[in-house]
Design a protein that fits this description.
Layout: H1 4-9, H2 26-42, E1 49-53, E2 57-58, E3 67-68, E4 72-76, E5 89-90, H3 91-94, E6 100-104, H4 110-114, H5 116-124, E7 129-133, E8 144-150, E9 153-156, E10 164-166, E11 171-176, E12 179-184, E13 189-190, H6 194-235
Parallel strand pairs: 2-5, 6-7
Antiparallel strand pairs: 1-4, 2-3, 4-6, 7-8, 8-9, 10-11, 11-12, 12-13
């Protein structure tokens, strides 16, 4: 019988973490999270869209060294929730490669993002859309670049009013300072990021409190008028 302690020590064959921090700077982490959460919310009603960030994507069965770790990626046509939950993404098990990838680039990753990873996304994984964003505008010009697969090769995505449209997402991508935002052309609004959702929740809670206070005040006034009418009736002489 295998001892439980042995199971705990057993290391998975396919890499699930490299022990490195999620992002090089707070801006890199913010961009990953501020893309991940709105995308999860955008596809929340579709059980067959999987959204992930900073997860190892293994693309060659039996070779633990053949992998990439996109900052954010989206896969359409697979189950969102599985048990046990995914700890890495294995293309041969899912029978589907990512459809959309964003890399938040930096001085240390720029070369890899533009060459090695780009070649893997284009030639091996056949990722339909690949976007790169430089939050500091130091390494990419322009800072947001997008490519779509056409006839087996990546072609630049043409901007629409300073935004890059994604057919996979049904959204546009647009820089806003050091953040990459998601824009819904149908509503004419950016998808809210977590801080904006929190602010909206605070306003909603405050409005709810004000509405509750107004309701109680109205009930108290109705009760006061009822008692006043009762008192007036008691004072009237009998007919």
């Amino acid at each position: 019988m295998i001892q439980r302690s042995t199971i705990r020590r057993a290391r998975p064959f396919y890499i699930e973490s490299d022990g490195k921090p999620m992002g090089e700077t707070p801006q890199h982490i913010d961009n990953m999270m501020y893309l991940l959460e709105p995308l999860k919310a955008w596809f929340a009603a579709d059980p067959r869209v999987f959204v992930a960030a900073n997860m190892f994507v293994h693309y060659e069965r039996g070779n633990r060294n053949r992998h990439v770790s996109p900052d954010v990626f989206v896969v359409k046509g697979i189950e969102k929730d599985v048990r046990p939950r995914r700890r890495s993404y294995r293309v041969w098990e899912e029978e589907k490669a990512p459809d959309f990838v964003v890399e938040v680039t930096s001085a240390s990753t720029r070369e890899e993002d533009l060459t090695t990873k780009r070649d893997i996304y284009q030639d091996v994984l056949r990722v339909q859309e690949y976007f790169l964003f430089d939050p500091f505008e130091e390494h990419l010009h322009p800072p947001l670049q997008g490519y779509r697969l056409a006839s087996g090769r990546y072609r630049p995505i043409r901007p629409v009013k300073s935004r890059l449209p994604s057919k996979v997402l049904g959204l546009h991508l647009e820089p806003s300072g050091e953040l990459l935002r998601l824009y819904d052309a149908a509503s004419g609004r950016w998808l809210p990021i977590p801080s904006e959702l929190l602010e909206a929740q605070k306003h909603a809670l405050e409005a709810q409190k004000q509405a509750e206070a107004a309701r109680r005040a109205a009930e108290a006034e109705i009760e006061r008028l009822r008692r006043e009418n009762e008192e007036l009736r008691r004072r009237l002489p009998p007919s």
